[in-house]
Give the backbone structure.
Amino acid sequence: MATHLPPQTAPANAEPGATPYGTLPPASPMASRKPISLPRLLEMHSRGEKITMLTAYDATFAAVADDAGVECILVGDSLGMVCQGLHSTVGVSLEHMRYHTESVSRGIRRAQGTAWMIADLPFGTYQESREQAFRSAAVLMHAGAHMIKLEGGGWTTEVVRFLVERGIPVCAHLGLTPQTVHALGGYRVQGKSDASAELLAREAHALQDAGASMLVLEMVPAQLSAKLTHELQHCATIGIGAGKGTAGQVLVLHDMLGVNLGKCPKFVRNFMEGSDSIRQAMQAYVAAVKDGSFPVDALHAW
Ligand code: KIV
């Protein structure tokens, strides 16, 4: 009996430029920049070119951010507050993070497909053991993340080493670590006293030595973050309320778009002011971080 094979043509709904395996279309031919990689980010840090990062939680905003030239997109567990209406990030689960990471990953691929994508390990998914951290990180990497972020210093050093040795790039997070807000007694500047600044610096160096290649510094005095940025040559610092001396900056998307009912933290600037569209606001943010006009230490830092 004759066998009729289907004709070897692309299905009518195939995306232009899709691979034969259909799952990972390459960066759009319209891409105006090379895909952002970890070596590229570290090279920007060593050259002194500022790195831009914004949070995103869904496909459309992630696509617009990628298209607007933002280099790093963080699926932050701030989605607990921004998307879910929680009072803190503590209630965010790994399943929530997986869902939003997948959505953002699809969005980036549908735009230029060039942004570097980081996803937060939520509270309770890495504190127990290095193995628990690896299992949780793998869920987010499977969902499309290029790097995971986790909060804290000291005990996290061994977790970071374990993940990095197993091929998972890690962004650490020191200063105000929102998952431990209850232990910290509120959203307060960290590293103000000599003793706490010394501890923070020791933890930052240990995290770099363990292989963390990025480090978010949140609500840390500008002078301390500038000093650490200079000292950490293999780990790019990303500031939020940490002054202009860091290797890059991050803001929560809804805050920088002014989509906010309460009082905004002093480190936020509303980039919708003077912009006609969300894309333009993101472009203004990228331009301001790159040319050093945002943040202004006297206004946005301590
Ligand atoms: O969850 C988040 O969005 C963050 C940023 C504020 C750095 O961790």
